Known about the structure:
Blueprint: E1 2-10, E2 13-18, E3 24-28, H1 35-45, E4 61-69, H2 80-91, E5 99-107, E6 112-116, E7 119-121, H3 123-133, E8 134-137, H4 148-156, H5 161-207, H6 214-226, H7 228-244, H8 249-261, H9 268-296, H10 301-321, H11 325-343, H12 345-391, E9 398-405, E10 418-425, E11 433-434, H13 435-438, H14 441-454, E12 463-466, H15 475-489, E13 493-497, H16 501-505, E14 509-518, E15 521-529, H17 531-542, H18 547-565
Parallel strand pairs: 3-13, 3-14, 8-12, 12-13
Antiparallel strand pairs: 1-2, 1-4, 4-5, 5-6, 6-7, 9-10, 10-11, 14-15
Helix pairs in contact: 2-3, 5-11, 5-12, 6-10, 7-9, 8-9, 12-14, 14-15, 17-18
Amino acid sequence: MLTSLTVKQFALIEQVHLEPGPGMTVFTGETGAGKSMLGGALAAVFGARASAEWVRHGADKAEVTAVWESVHGESAKGEGADVRLNALLDAADIDVEDALILRRIVTSEGRSRAYVNGVPVALKTLQQIGNICLDMHGQHEHQTLMQASVQQQLLDARLPADLLQGVQDAFEAWRQLQGQLKSLHAERGETEQQAAWMREELARLEALEIEDGLVERLQEEVDRGRHHAQIQQAAGEALSLLEESEPSVRDLIARAGHAVAAVEDFHDGLHRSREMVDQMDALLGEVTPELRSVLDASFDEAALHRAEQRLMGMHEAMRRHDADEAGLLALMETWRQRLAALDTAGWDEASLLQALNEAADRYRTEAAALSAERAAQGDKLVGQLRPFLDQLALGGMQVRFDVCPAQDESAWRADGWDAITLQVMSNPGEPWRDLAAVASGGELSRLVLAFKGCGVLTDMPKLAVFDEVDTGIGGETAWCVGELLAGMGRERQVLVISHLPQVASCADHQVVISKAERNGRTVTCLQPVADDSRQSEIARMLGGAGEQSLQHAAEMLRRGQGSVTA
């Protein structure tokens, strides 16, 4: 809640400090004393558009500081406004311990600066905080009841949760299928030309019969074919030296073996030497078949050409796709899958269209049921409002919830297809009009009180400010307004600017706003009153300060305070 408000050089206010308590606080005083300026200062510190007229004549700047008691951690659980406020502060990286200090400075040129806990912030941050914390009636930018989302919530809060969930589930299913169909169309549109290219390129790669290590094997085959003559010459020469020349290498090795074998028993070194010579002869015996197979190999010029072309194709494909054999194989598999998907896309589209139509039918059924229940709940709520409207001098006002289903799919939402508008008919025979277009500040404030009396306004901002709420009423209607405001004060902090003693008598606290002259200038002053002082102020509001007025004021305070404690 708001724990303190300091206003400096704001319009007629030179400097005032206010520490409003919980419950309902009423501000009273003579006409023109500056009561509405207090509401303007609150609007300023909670993000209203800056105006140079806010600055007191002769001053360089106006300054408003508000201290807001913040609720954190475990204590904020279950309190929607507190949870939203903490989420906003966390998102803005604003540290808060016990209090939130809002400060707004406006220069005489109309420029504005905003601070939260000493940190400069964008004006939008103050406005977001204001939307959560402040409900100001009589200032159009803060009239919560005129927001379409709030008017819809008045009805939805009375609906079974499964009805709303059914619409949301149906909408999500329908939207997901829409997305899948859109993706399918986009993919088909993008890949029609790509498919022809993929098929052509896939055929070229498949013709290469790609496998791991293919490039290395092809390179070996090409090198062998290109050097066939040199290979044959080398093999022939080696074979001649080993077996065909006189003497051949194998003949010489055999002689060396015989020479050593004759005396090998007399020396270990000769024995080992003879064993190694035998091993050499055995190895040479394996070499010669290899050489003969090389000599027997014929040269296939056509095979060499095919290997060269295949190797060239591999290098070109690897360069074109920036991949090795494994990468080309993976790319080919990807293309096969995409081409297969395109081949079955017609079946997929038909299946998706059928599923989409079924999902749309389900949404229509769920949304129509929701729309009908909203209309029924709207009628019930209007019936509950009627006694309160009559008590609040709004007997001639007719109210209805216009629930208008939108069949166009572009208007479908997760919370249904309804456009919900709270409409009023100020006088019989006149057309229905949207509340925002016709309701005055006082009528709107009393309408809010009527809704509050029905118990349907929940999770509202913690601070409500009412100006003009008592316009055009008196007598028992004024008492009804005061009692409803006092009842609201048991759940929220309520600040009321009033001219009516009945409303003032119901408040928990009363502050008198007056004008005084200081150094030749008019200034606005605030003075909390209680006991005798408050009785005197109520008597003044009744039109006199005599004994009879004081006695009447005392009686009114007893009645008003009795309603507060009831």
